[in-house]
Design brief:
Layout lengths: L7 E6 L5 H12 L2 E6 L6 H14 L4 E4 L4 H8 L4 E6 L1 H10 L4 H11 L6 E7 L10 H20 L2 E6 L2 E6 L1
Parallel strand pairs: 1-5, 1-6, 2-3, 2-4, 4-5
Antiparallel strand pairs: 6-7
Helix pairs in contact: 4-6, 5-6
Function: Catalyzes ATP-dependent phosphorylation of adenosylcobinamide and addition of GMP to adenosylcobinamide phosphate.
Catalytic activity: adenosylcob(III)inamide + ATP = adenosylcob(III)inamide phosphate + ADP + H(+); adenosylcob(III)inamide + GTP = adenosylcob(III)inamide phosphate + GDP + H(+); adenosylcob(III)inamide phosphate + GTP + H(+) = adenosylcob(III)inamide-GDP + diphosphate
Protein name: Bifunctional adenosylcobalamin biosynthesis protein
């Protein structure tokens, strides 16, 4: 029997906090057809190795969609009530949008407009980057600010929101 994640689930946490593992567990527990939307781009050898390792770890139990920019289009295209979709991660998506000079407000608006209409179980992973010191350069500060705004928008429409630290999930909403 499948147990669909309720509406949209947002999973936040720091680097290596266990957030992705927790999010993957939510999708696996749903029993639904697993889809993984990967937003990362390989700009260097370390990232290429990381992406390859993640692909290997997921194996053939997941259908992977690599989409660094058109997240809304990809979600619209693969949405179905018999699926659970994991997006990992929103902060990489924000980075990609910034690097391409995209209109982030419009992209965020399109995503948040889509969320209530998704019929699949949807789990979104993102790095909480606003807990540290103020970044020393403008681009890093803008990135932090954009990520924080996006998290607020997504959390407002999400059914459940978790914060993961040291592998331990704290339910913040739902």
């Amino acid at each position: 029997m499948s147990k669909k994640p309720p509406g949209t689930v947002l999973v936040l946490g720091g680097a290596r906090s266990g957030k992705s593992r927790f999010a993957e567990g939510l999708v696996v527990e749903s029993g639904l057809d697993r889809h993984y939307v990967a937003t990362g781009l390989a700009f260097d050898d370390e990232m290429r190795e990381r992406i390859a390792r993640h692909r290997t770890d997921r194996g053939d139990r997941w259908t992977t969609h690599e989409e660094p920019l058109d997240l809304v289009g990809t979600l619209s295209r693969i949405d179905a009530p018999d699926r659970a979709i994991l997006v990992d991660c929103l902060t990489l998506w924000v980075t990609n949008l910034m690097m391409e000079g995209r209109d982030l407000a419009a992209e965020f608006e399109a995503l948040t407009a889509l969320l209530p209409n998704v019929s699949a179980g949807l789990v979104l992973v993102s790095n909480e980057v606003g807990l540290g010191i103020v970044p020393e350069n403008r681009m890093a500060r803008e990135f932090r600010d954009h990520a924080g705004r996006l998290h607020q928008l997504v959390a407002a429409s999400a059914a459940d929101v978790y914060f993961v630290a040291a592998g331990l999930p704290l339910k913040m909403k739902g």
